[in-house]
Amino acid sequence: KNPPKYIRKQWYQRRVRAWKIYHGLVPDSTGMRQDFDSEGRLGVQLKNPPKYISKADTKRANHLFASFGVQAYSLWNKLPAKVNSCSTLDSFKSALGVFLDSFHD
After folding, report:
1. CA 95 → CA 36, 50, 53, 87, 92, distances in Å?
2. What's the pLDDT band for 82 if we cut at 50, 70, 90?
3. What angle do CA 89, 98, 86 make, to 5 degrees?
């Protein structure tokens, strides 16, 4: 089952913000820019997300794992190379829209 539309919109916005961080268009308050890996067969990838707290503290863990600084890593790495290697914001948004539209509601 696919997630609701508002969740998919959040995922879209987080991927766009990660692209902007990668290209230096917005401030990097998460330290994510240093975690981008060079382009390879899968395109630009993010190294594994940082582990700040253990999952034993579930209340704090739920807030942390729902945050941009953690979710953006996995959302970015799920993109195909032709999407995450786009050089302009408009081409990235267009390719991202096509990629996300390939999943049915």
Report:
1. 20, 28, 35, 11, 5
2. confident
3. 30
Dist. CA 53–CA 80, nearest whole Å: 30
pTM, 2 dp: 0.63
The closest of 99, 66, 103, 70 to 84, measured between CA atoms, is 99
What is the pLDDT of the chain when averaged over all its residues? 76
Residue 47 has pLDDT above 70, yes or no: yes
The residue-averaged pLDDT of 13-42 equals 79
- With a CB cutoff of 8 Å and minimum separation 6, the contacts of 19 are 84, 86, 89, 92
Interior CA angle at 36 toward 32 and 40, to 5°?
A: 165
| 3-state secondary structure at position 72 | helix
